[in-house]
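JOB MANIFEST
job_type = single_chain_structure
chain_count = 1
residues = 199
[input]
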Amino acid sequence: MTLEYQSEGVWLRTEVVGFCAEFIDMVKFAAFLTKLSNIAGYQQLVVSDGDSSQEMEEDEDDSQSDQSDEYISMNPEYSILKDYTAMAVTPQHIELVVAGQAHRFGHGPLVPRPLPRPLPRGRGRAGAQGAPGYEYRKAPTQPKDKWMAYVIPGVILQALANQQYVDVFEVDLYIEFDDGDLQSDFETALKANNYFAKK
């Protein structure tokens, strides 16, 4: 579906996205499904391409191995699954060109930077932190057919309106890399613009 946002009372289109919603309240979930089918004409599609018992076992193994360092966020995830052909990281934004289309994101909030090593005895205090910066991290689950995947939490998706970029909303940027050199160049550009790797 096409993501839209409102600017000065006008709805503008930005990107084609895959929509994912999680529900805790079953009544709200049922009402949402009813509206999708009755108003928009959507139909439920169940896809299974293998042994479901085997898939469930693999999912359980993955969830157990990732529980210790799982990153939980309430932001929608914006995924870039193909290598970029052009990239720029500036003090104001991140821009990636993928398949001829530019994707631009303002930086998220500054967060305290962890100190790289324990301070010598008598210097600083327990729990001390370094200067604030922007964080990125390896994705909790790395794709098996890719070189690497990163998550950059809390960046601001931007869209071009009236010849200038405007903030749309906050997302967690998920990026997969096929090419290790592109991943290395991107990480270098992030670090040059006050980003640090969150362990």
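[summary]
The radius of gyration is 20 Å.
The longest helix spans residues 52-66.
exit_status = 0
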